[in-house]
Amino acid sequence: MGRDAKTSYQMGVRLLLGSGAIAVAGIGGYLAYWLWFNPNAKAISVPAIAIEPTEVIKSVPAGGIVRLGNQQSLKVPTSADRSAIVERINVRVNSPIQEGQILVRLKDPEGQSQVNEQRLLIQKQQLDLEAKERAIMQAKTELERALSELKIQQQNQSALRKAELERDRARERIQEQKIELETLQIELESIRDLVDRGYLASNEQRRQEQAVRQAEAAFRDTQKSLQEAEFELENQQLTIGETLQKLTETVRIKEIALDNARSNVQTARRDLESAQLNLIKSEQNFEKNSLIRATTAGRVLDINVKPGEVLQQDRTLLVIGDPRREEVEIRLTTLQAALVQLEQSAIVSAIGIISGSFDGRVKELGRVALDDSNSSQSRGGQSTVKAIIVLDRPSQKLIPGSQVSVEIIVDRQDNAIALPSQFIQDRDRKGPYVWVLPESGEAERRSVKLGLVGDTLTEIKTGLESGETVVSPPSDRPLEEGMKLLPLINSELRVNNK
User: Fold this and answer.
1) Assuming Cys at both sites, which of 10, 202, 277, 411 could form a disulfide with 58, CB separation 3.0 to 4.6 Å?
2) How far is the C-alpha of 217 from the C-alpha of 214, rounded, in Å?
3) What does the alpha-carbon distance between residue 482 and residue 408 come to, in Å, rounded to a whole number?
């Protein structure tokens, strides 16, 4: 019984080993068959990207300096031959300030001396003006006296006036008689015509001729009366002529004296007004040189002086700015500036330990290229164009004076089909194309039409659709249509190019 069991055990082991060998051989044959006939076994591994709508951005890069709105350095406002002393500083660094607020008070001895001299000059000119105004009163009194004497003399000229009246009446009679005589002469001519035609008797003509002769005689008598009246008037004029001439000359002299006195007063008033204006200017200059006021609302960014310090011209006292506005001054090459326009979007990125990006817009763009070889943003002596980027909202992080990087978005295409440049092939004359990997896994060459060429992506206007997979040829071998491909999709590639 034991022997039979042992024999049976040995036979079972042999059967088991045999069946295991057969199984191994079968599995090995299946693996060999799978490896030989499976298409993926010969597929080429290639970088691939899944197409999905994204945005294509073309930007202009630049570096710039951060500053606050209306940032400015307030300097000593004295002239070159004067100095000032810091008397008092009314603010601290980061203190909020209002426009017109006194920030620093300076001592200006020379300015105070000029104000005092101007005040003394005004007092002197006021006394001079008062004296000349009194001279006007005196000249008026003398003129009134001369006019009164002239008036009295003129009122005593009744004989002269009577002669003038006689002359005027004679002249009036002459005019009336002249008209009457002309009328009679016209009537006489009419009567003569009628007599010649036989319509009137000749005695009518004689009566009219008699009337004309009488009118002519009266006219001559009146002319003689006029001559006599004019002669009498001349006699009267000669009698009182000298007296009136003397009085009139006296009045004229007094009028000239009054005019001169008035002119002197006007000159004195102008001099006084000029001195008063000069005093106002001197006081304003003194205040300007002594009181340093904030030119804008904001904060104090830096203070460069201390009380008691003696300052010369152009010495910077303090720096102020408005934190409600943050801006970046950049320099663009002329080629870059040609792409930039006002109100274009921009992204400002901090450099250094302060991280973050902030949205802004182009608010100022120079129209003249300047040589900035001495600027901190110089580009090797190349002419550049100045531009100002204003942040949409103050960052409250960027430090004025620090450097930042800026990207101005000059063009953008949203919801576009786009690819990185390494996936676009354009080495032949048939135009750009890409390698598409359909579900069959076989490479397909497809022509495309390019659109906006962005910083990292290029827009594909036609030839591709969302959801398709595009591959990039490997560096060691070219692709051909129908090749089996194994896509290696890099998920970071799409993320990094959004």
Assistant:
1) 411
2) 5
3) 43
Specify the pLDDT at position 495: 38
Note down the domain range covering 490: 45-56+414-496
Position 10 confidence tier, pLDDT thresholds 50, 70, 90: very low
Say whether both 49 and 165 belong to one domain: no
* Per-residue pLDDT tens over the stretch 249-308: 888 898 899 899 889 999 989 988 998 898 888 877 777 778 888 888 888 989 998 998
Q: Is 446 domain-assigned?
A: yes
- Alpha-carbon gap, residue 449 to 463, rounded angstroms: 7
- 311 found inside a domain: no
Residue 268 sits in a domain of what CATH number?
Answer: 1.10.287
Name the residue with tokens 């007094």: 254
Radius of gyration in angstroms for the set of CA atoms belonging to the chain, rounded to a whole number: 58
Q: Are 319 and 418 in contact (CB under 8 A)?
A: no
Q: Are residues 52 and 152 in the same domain?
A: no
DSSP string, 334-395: HHHHTT--TT-EEEEEE-SSS--EEEEEEEEE-SS-EE-TTSTT--TT-EEEEEEEEESS--
Q: Does residue 393 fall inside a structural domain?
A: no
Q: What is the residue-wise DSSP string for 69-112?
A: EEEEEEE----TT--EEEEEE---TT-EE-TT-EEEEEE-HHHH
Distances (CA, A) of 289 to 83, 101, 116, 341: 10, 15, 16, 41
Q: Do 50 and 161 reside in the same domain of the chain?
A: no
Tokens of 63: 């570096």
Give backbone dihedrals phi and psi of 324, rounded to 5 degrees, phi first. Answer: -70, -10
pTM: 0.54
SS3 category, 424 = coil
Identify whether residues 51 and 174 lie together within a single domain. no
Q: Sign of dihedral through CA atoms 119, 123, 129, 132?
A: negative
pLDDT of residue 153: 73
User: What is the number of structural domains in the chain?
Assistant: 2
- What are the angstrom distances between the C-alpha of 245 and each of 147, 236, 294? 13, 14, 72
Pair (51, 143) in one structural domain: no
